[in-house]
Amino acid sequence: MTCEEFVELVTAFLEGALDEAAERAFVEHLAECQGCERYLDQFRATIAELGELPPESLPDETRERLLDAFRTWGHATDGPAGPPEHHR
Amino acid sequence: MLPADKVLVAGLRSGDEATFVSLLDAWSGSMIRLARGFVSTDASAEEVVQDTWLAVIRGIDGFRGTASLRTWVYRILVNTAKKRGVKEKRTVPWTSVDPDGGPTVDPSRFRGADEGFPGHWREFPEPWVLDGELRQVVGRALDDLPERQRVVVVLRDVEGHTSEEVCAMLEISPANQRVLLHRGRAAVRACLETYFATSGGTA
Fold first, then answer.
1. Most C-beta atoms within 10 A of its C-beta, which of A2, A10, A54, B180?
2. According to the UniProt entry, where is the signal peptide (chain B) (predicted)?
3. Do residues B120 and B50 both lie within one domain?
């Protein structure tokens, strides 16, 4: 396995999606190659950083509008809104 | 921690506001991030989320429980966002396995066929020292990803869904999911590498 091949298999390796032979070759390469070990570390660090992104939230007025919609829909028998349009 | 789906669905159907609020507050943030992969502006993304919740309110009686409630809601979101994206001409087909083609690391980083050790690193990647600035760099890198990669990376790595859940939400194959995830991650890593190389991020 070359480094060029290794870098394309990193996610498949992390997902446990490589077949036995490919996984063995991947691990053997990793054991011998400092560059690819570093690449794998950086790939993991990238994934960890993605997981640290701050949460977003709905603007307050949108949230209020949705709460109103829920109240209206939940308690109205005469149904102010139409039938579901978006769901499948 | 939210209660089980059965409890949530019963709450929504009976018009229990506390249930709705808990879902709205727990999921809307990640839904905005997800929607933004399909549409052009933050305002559009928020409208997609709003329309999704309206569809959930109206359609909850039709929820059959074949997928989890969250998967069902996210599917509505993706469909709503796609429709909107088509209007804004941003949507590309999700069907082909490897739509964006090409290697995920610049081929010039590896030795050529006429050199010793072809396909091996010409020079190893420089080591990184992680710092607080990184979050912004990661956020921008994510924003710049192609739509499909962005959506899969958001769902898997930002929001922490499993590959099974993501395949179900997006109705794509595991192989397709993995390719998009790998491309997206590799592109974000490459942005970080550029950041470290150019900002004196003590490499």
1. B180
2. none
3. no
How many residue contacts between A and B have a Cβ separation below 8 Å?
171
Please indicate whether, in this complex, the C-beta atoms of A46 and B105 are within 8 angstroms of each other.
no
Question: Which residue in this structure is represented by tokens 């924003």?
Answer: B143
Determine, for residues B104 and A46 on separate chains, whether the beta-carbon distance falls below 8 Å: no
Asked if A83's CB is within 8 angstroms of B57's CB, the reply is: no
CATH value at residue B33 = 1.10.1740.10
Tokens 């509008």 label which residue?
A65
Q: What does the domain layout of chain A look like in residue ranges?
A: 1-54
Asked whether residue B175 carries a pLDDT value surpassing 60, the answer given is yes
Distance from CA of A31 to the nearest CA of B (A): 14
- CA atoms within a 13 Å half-sphere pointing along the CA-CB vector of A78: 0
Give a yes or no: residue B93 inside a domain. Answer: no
| Amino acid at position B165, single letter | E
- Domain-embedded: residue B102: no
Please determine, for residue B58, whether its predicted confidence score (pLDDT) is greater than 80.
Answer: yes
Over residues A59-84, mean pLDDT: 74
Total domains present in chain B: 2
Mutation target to probe the B interface, by most B beta carbons within 10 A, among A53, A65, A72, A85 is A53
ipTM of the complex: 0.76
Residue that is written with structure tokens 């970080």 in the block = B192
User: Does the structure show a pLDDT above 60 at A76?
Assistant: no
Residue ranges making up the domain that contains B24 = 5-87
